[in-house]
Amino acid sequence: MTQSQADIHEPSLILVSTPRPGACVLTLNRSAKRNALSYSLINELLTQLRAASEDEEIQSIVIAGSDNFFSAGADLREIATLDVEGARQIRYLENLCNGLRSVRKPVIAAVEGKALGGGFELALMADFIVATPETEFRLPEVNIGLIPGAGGTQRLTNAIGKHQAMKMILLGEALSGIEAHKLGLASHLADPGKALDCALDLATNLGSRSQSAIRLAKEAICRADELGQDEHFERSLYYTAFGTKDKREGVAAFLEKRAPVWNHAE
Question: What is the pLDDT of residues 156-188, one digit of tens each?
Fold first, then answer.
């Protein structure tokens, strides 16, 4: 697929910032198209995710959008050119799913405004979702003869159950930020306009903890979320934690009644 003309004139589809130590913010920057997930935007997001993952100074990654739109979902002008063979050949959206899955650091979605279709699925790929009362989550794909294709049917069902997922996917019903928080879909509910601030507070909180333990715990949780209960896998990671410098420091600090000084190495 070629780069859409709309993207050629945009200098950067992802804005990168580090407003707090250890926290990298990746902001979707295609506001004229409501942050629609074009092929170019996805590739740039994956590039920045890899860079943040490899940066030893970064401990958490925040994905944000604009005030009104986190993301309107897939770029319909691009997918209009795809048939079944074309979509399969380029593995459309598979790279986005695999890219987020490979990030071992905590990923936080700061969702202001609307998160529709693939935009909602992008948020679902995160480890934490911060919403506000004005946030709107919706999967409208059935209205154009499609279904969610970036894990939405799977992750949403795991998060809120079969019947609520049926309402959102088959009927296209919206979920507000308040409702999402009540259902456990949104991990945090921030004041209007404060989703990013809340996400950064969360990133700071995460950054104060053992990063080796955080990464191991995330791996175990994601394994259970995707494949179901696996106590053997959890136990293998638990034993791995016994060999980390952070484990030795954490136990010593507890016994010595002092604050731990994390090394963050595995």
Answer: 999 999 999 999 999 999 999 999 999 999 999
Please say whether the beta carbons of 25 and 18 come within 8 A.
Answer: yes
Cβ–Cβ < 8 Å for 237, 220: yes
Question: Is 231 one of the annotated active-site residues of the chain?
Answer: no
- Which residue of the set 121, 134, 136, 179 is catalytic? 121
Choosing from 141, 179, 186, 190, the catalytic residue is: 141
Six-digit token string for 14: 């992802």
- For the entire predicted model, the pTM comes to 0.88
DSSP state of 184: T
Q: Is 121 a catalytic residue?
A: yes
Catalytic-role residue among 22, 117, 118, 250: 118
> Annotated catalytic, 74?
yes
Q: Can 72 be counted among the known catalytic residues?
A: no
* pLDDT tens digit sequence for 111-122: 999 999 999 999
